[in-house]
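Q: What residues go here?
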């Protein structure tokens, strides 16, 4: 396992806790994200600030990390492509196992991908994956600028919120040849 970079704002040092179950430490940080947290459609973008409130608690198996992350996600409305911004507040709780405990878990559990075990690496906790797992499910799958957003015109791309009565006269191509029969014939007018 790669050693987390202790200079990263998402890496926490747990050495002050020791291995004494019941020892706790509270941390509050304002962090600038190194990578996007979200999906292609909406995310807390890299370089955006987030507030992290964390409680580190030493337990027999490792360090229990409980906390919350809040920030502002930006993206585009899936109906009209206007910018969307929404507040994100996600909670998380994960156990970071001591290396020897994690090795025992892997030995007992085998190669099951079902239970992901987070490990303390040299007494450091890397929150990046935990934050991603907490934030992404809170984001809307299809964000909209407002619940009743009418979207864009399918023919020309006109923003329908500006003119709700906007429409095009559309003739079914299967009947377009017959549309000429409805027009007045210049020969008939002469007779």
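A:
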């Amino acid at each position: 396992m790669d050693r987390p970079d202790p200079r990263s704002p998402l890496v926490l040092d747990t050495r002050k806790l020791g291995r004494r179950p019941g020892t706790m430490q509270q941390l509050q940080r304002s962090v600038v994200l190194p990578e996007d947290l979200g999906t292609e459609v909406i995310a807390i973008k890299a370089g955006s600030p987030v507030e992290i409130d964390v409680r580190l608690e030493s337990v027999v198996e490792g360090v229990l990390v409980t906390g919350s992350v809040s920030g502002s996600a930006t993206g585009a409305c899936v109906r009209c492509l206007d910018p969307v911004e929404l507040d994100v507040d996600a909670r998380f709780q994960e156990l970071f196992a001591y290396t020897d405990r994690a090795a025992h878990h892997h030995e007992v559990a085998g190669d099951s991908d079902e239970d992901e075990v987070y490990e303390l690496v040299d007494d450091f906790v890397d929150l990046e994956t935990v934050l991603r797992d907490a934030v992404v499910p809170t984001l809307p799958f299809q964000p909209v600028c407002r619940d009743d957003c009418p979207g864009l015109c399918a023919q020309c791309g006109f923003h329908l919120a500006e003119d709700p009565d906007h429409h095009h006269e559309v003739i079914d191509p299967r009947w377009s040849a017959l549309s000429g029969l409805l027009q007045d014939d210049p020969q008939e007018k002469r007779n």
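A: Context that may help when evaluating the design: The chain has a mean pLDDT of 83. Residues 11-138 form one domain.
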